Amino acid sequence: MHLSKTKARKNCPTCKGKFHPARATVKYCSASCKKTAANKRQAKKQEVGFQTTAFGSWLVGQCRRAGTVQILQGFDINDLYKVWARCRKANGFNVSEDDPSPKFEISHIAPVTAVGAIGTLHPNNLVIAPAYYNRSRCNNWDNKSGVWLRPIDLLPTWKVYPELTAKEVAEKIVKFNPVGFSALVSNVKLAASFRVKMINTLMKTGLFQLRQLQAQPYESLVALYEVLQTTKQTEGKKIYRLDRLTSFEVYQSECQRLEVEGVDDYNLFSRCETECWDHLHGGILTVYFDGLNF
Fold first, then answer.
1. What are the beta bridge partners of residue 10?
2. 174 contacts 184 by C-beta, under 8 angstroms
3. pLDDT of the chain along its 294 residues, tens only?
4. Is this model's pTM higher than 0.85 or not?
5. DSSP letter at 148?
6. Is residue 191 within 8 Å of 52, Cβ to Cβ?
7. Three-point CA angle 278, 281, 286, nearest 5°
8. Quick one: CA dihedral 19, 20, 26, 32, positive or negative?
């Protein structure tokens, strides 16, 4: 007879089944149940402060802009996170504000505020594009490309009212897709937003009070943070840096992600860049692909 058989049976907190533990300290009936419980704890932890993470803060802002969390329907939130992370990587890290290379933003194909339509955050409705291009688009749309919702499809339950706090919007996001959210935090360790990181870094200097920093506009925090980073460099401490990608590199990457045939010659791309980005947003590409003619 196995010794484990002589021990009192326990109830597994995950699957609720009874089992004979090999040791008195064993809490779960299997490694699978133990991992599931750990994932649930991690999800609960992330749920509490989701709005303070970089991805969560961005997502809350997008839902505010659309006025609903239903822009998250019809796709895996993990895929949305990958697009967001690709955009962050394209912008580099610790890149100087004087860097002439363009910054990138996530641009909608079907706009969020179009008449009679609300563009969703479906990865197939998003393009990582230069910020100057994204902002020049306004609500330009061909009324057929991308992924969108009709106002009639929106449910009051998922409406995001202006008076809701960031935490309340985050709670709606989690409630709208609990399974997808749980899978996300199980696969990805969400980092604090840059604002939170700057405040934490500045607090470590002992020169500021938390309330003082929290009341500062974002631009003021950036200025203080950059002064601190410059001081570290002067003192000889190495600052990690990741260069920003070029527009052509991002364009090629987006063509591959969206499975769109685009211009593969840099010189041709540089001469018709706006048309290339328009093409990824549903427009027609009129140039040849040999890099020689228009």
1. 19
2. no
3. 344 444 577 888 888 888 878 777 888 888 888 877 776 666 555 544 788 888 999 999 999 999 999 999 999 999 999 999 999 889 987 777 777 788 999 999 999 988 889 999 999 999 999 999 999 988 899 999 999 999 999 999 999 999 999 999 999 999 999 988 888 887 777 766 667 777 888 888 777 788 888 777 766 777 777 777 666 656 655 555 678 899 999 999 999 999 999 999 999 999 999 999 999 999 999 886 544 444
4. no
5. E
6. no
7. 40
8. negative
Asked if residue 72 lies in contact with residue 120, where contact means CB atoms within 8 angstroms, the answer is yes
Tokens representing 145 are: 């490309």
Q: Are 263 and 280 in contact (CB under 8 A)?
A: no
CA dihedral 11, 13, 14, 18 (to 10 degrees): 0
Tokens 């020169």 identify what position?
Answer: 207
**Which residues on neighbouring strands pair with residue 58, listed in sequence order?**
none
> Is-contact 241 94, C-beta < 8 A?
yes
Q: How many CB atoms lie within 10 A of CB 17?
A: 12
- Chain position carrying tokens 């364009």: 251
Burial class (CB in 10 A: 0-12, 13-18, 19+), 203: middle
Torsion angle in degrees (nearest 10) through CA of 61, 62, 63, 69: -140
104-108 and 10-11 beta bridge pairing: unpaired
Residue 271 and residue 291: Cα distance in Å, rounded?
10
